[in-house]
Amino acid sequence: MDMDVKKVNIYIDGNNLYRSAKELGYEIDYKKFRVWLSQKYNTKNIFLFIGYLENRKDFYNHLKNCGFNLIFKEAILHEGNIKGNCDAELVLKSVDDYHLKNFDKFILISNDGDFGCLIEFLINKNCFDIILSPDISKCSILLRNKTNKILYLNEIYKKFSKSK
Q: Which of 53, 64, 129, 149 gets the highest tally of CB atoms within 10 A of its CB?
């Protein structure tokens, strides 16, 4: 392998991405999104962390066919809402991949300030690349305080959204 070629991994907080896009009026075309990420960041390794519901198998198969590596957390229905927060899984997989040397550069897609400690860890290890924040107005100050390397997806959704 060419020593100049960097292994880039992207880790997506699936619920955060989905909800942010929806609130901004976009429906993500996951196939287009996968292509855009691959081309922009020259990567094959894109991990999508998502709550698992039995009745969503067709959707999960679609995501796999688009090229995402799915990491599930069992979701539960609580007071009419689906709960499937995958933050701990994303952090654990990221740190494990770091220690296994599975990437040279790390990209996070989330607005969630709970990932601030992960970003700080990866900055200190010199392998953090950028945060792709799904919504400029929702990006936590806890992320913005760690780095100014943030790309806000607000104006970019048009590139990988389903036509209305």
A: 129
